[in-house]
Amino acid sequence: MTADHREPLPLSDDDLASLVGIRHFELALLRMFGAGELNGTTHTCLGQEYVPVALAPLLRDDFVLSNHRGHGHYLARYRDPEGLLAEIMGREGAVCSGVGGSQHVHRDGFLSTGVQGQSVPLAVGIGLRFKRAGERRVAAAFIGDGTWGEGAVYEGLNMAALWQVPVLVVVEHNGIAQSTPTELQLAGTIAARAAAFDVDFTEVVTKDIADIRAQVAPVVARVRDEHRPAVVQFTTHRLGPHSKGDDTRGAEELAALREWDWHGELAARLGQRFRAIDDKERDEVERIVERVRNRPPATWAAPVGAVR
Fold first, then answer.
1. Residue 171: beta bridge partners?
2. Contact 195, 132 (CB under 8 A)
3. What average pLDDT does range 87-104 have in this prediction?
4. Containing H/E element for 259?
5. What whole-number distance in Å separates Cα of residue 249 and Cα of residue 34?
6. What are phi and psi of 229, to 5 degrees?
7. What would the mean pLDDT of 117-132 be, rounded to a whole number?
8. Residues 6 or more apart whose Cβ sits within 8 Å of residue 38
9. Contact yes or no for 175/218 (Cβ under 8 A)
10. Distance between CA atoms of 90 and 297, rounded to whole angstroms?
11. What is the pLDDT of residue 307?
């Protein structure tokens, strides 16, 4: 695992609250599945929460396309755990009236689906509209390293490069595609794939929020102002299972991942400040669970905002 030995930069209370809020939301979902309170499936972003939290202010007015592991992407952008939980549970107050569930969420400037790779060509279309309309906006697509087995990714990168579309592809490279280690399913590198299309590539290995923003902000600015598509790869790690309880990794590997995790690192570094915010966010998630659990089923209403 890659270590970052630079001195960590200051972390705001707001960013810390977002980080631990997403963590406790995801943990609550796993507990609720275990208790039989949720149906279908869910894919948590445990361990990767810092990626969307770091990028949220850089993409505040842009269009974000998420994927099957998208709860953190949504929560970092909207801070709406109650609406998302209601969506997952199919209860009143749901973001999409309970018809989208865990993977398919639409809100103004945000769309997630469980179809691997679909977000890249969609980002090209949305970004092309921004370019033609003279809007200084970016279409950002979150994908994983396993998604580089989908042809739609390469078709999208080809069009984005040819047409010079403001597309940012964010790769959460967690080293495992469902239960297959990346080295067993991906030849070569993602950097070389981006280079083949003459697309800018940046790798981020740090978990430090401020450092990430300093590294990625110039990339986003180039995409926005020069219409130069880019790929930003976050070398990260997934702590939880692919979906619910289907983790095939051994105890030693999982223990090493927990040692790497940002949560314990921040708890040790920030002490009482961390504990106070962590406790507050955990308690708030539990209150939200209780409120949503007692709501009636959702009824259909138009989604919040339009695709624009």
1. 143, 233
2. no
3. 93
4. helix 251-260
5. 19
6. -60, 150
7. 96
8. 29, 32, 88, 89
9. no
10. 6
11. 46
Q: How far is CA 93 from CA 31, 97, 250, 254, 256, in A?
A: 22, 7, 40, 36, 39
Q: Look at the block and give the residue holding tokens 């923003």.
A: 213
Fold type of domain 13-291: Rossmann fold (3.40.50)
Question: pLDDT at position 290, please?
Answer: 98
Its pTM stands at 0.90
Domain boundaries, the chain: 13-291
Paired tokens of 170 = 């964010």
Cα–Cα dist 77/55, whole Å: 9
Length of the chain: 308
Q: Quick count: other Cβ atoms within 10 Å of Cβ 264?
A: 11
Give the largest CA-CA distance in the chain: 53
For residue 221, give every residue at least 6 positions away whose Cβ sits within 8 Å of its Cβ, in sequence order, or none.
Answer: none
Answer whether 154's CB lies under 8 Å from 198's CB: no
31-76, pLDDT tens digit by residue?
Answer: 998 899 988 888 888 999 999 999 999 999 999 999 988 999 999 9
